[in-house]
Design goal:
Elements lengths: L25 H16 L4 E3 L9 E4 L14 E11 L3 E8 L2 E11 L1 E7 L5 E7 H14 L11
Antiparallel strand pairs: 1-2, 2-3, 3-6, 4-5, 6-7
């Protein structure tokens, strides 16, 4: 559909809490498509709605897109995602963010999480993930709470 303008370090919207999405209407579906287009155009693996100026509780991601062994697109859209469980085991990963270009920091993340969300068809979903997918979801859901990865960097 359209590539939206990214919001960058210093933009106040990145520090605000996203609003719950009550209804999955045509505007939300267009926003999801635009977020995916924007994410792919900027070679990202994840994007939160606030990063394109919308305070909606919504994220998109595609961890397969960056895997050289699996280069096809497999986009995921999560509306009102909520992490319901986290493993005790942690991993230290180097993260970057489309809103903070050329900045990379080590961040501790839970190795495995369970997330509940609504898909674009309005169906409730529950997903348990680990590895890169877990890291991406944690990073993007942090955005929904006004937290950026620099707030979590290793000291």
């Amino acid at each position: 559909m359209a590539i939206r303008e990214l919001r960058f370090k210093g933009d106040e919207i990145l520090t605000k809490k996203a609003r719950y999405v009550d209804e999955i209407d045509e505007k939300i579906k267009i926003l999801a498509e635009d977020m995916l287009d924007t994410m792919y155009a900027n070679d990202g693996v994840g994007l939160a709605a606030c990063q394109v100026g919308m305070l909606k509780s919504m994220i998109t991601y595609d961890v397969m897109y960056v895997d050289e062994k699996h280069p096809r697109k497999e986009p995921i859209v999560m509306i009102n995602p909520k992490i319901t469980s986290r493993s005790k085991s942690m991993v230290l990963v180097e993260e970057g963010c489309l809103s903070f270009p050329k900045i990379f920091e080590n961040v501790k993340r839970h190795e495995k999480i369970t997330v509940e969300y609504t898909d674009l068809n309005g169906k409730k979903q529950v997903k348990t993930v680990k590895g890169m997918e877990s890291v991406v979801i944690q990073h993007e859901t942090d955005h929904l709470d006004g937290i950026v990865f620099l707030d979590r960097k290793e000291k």
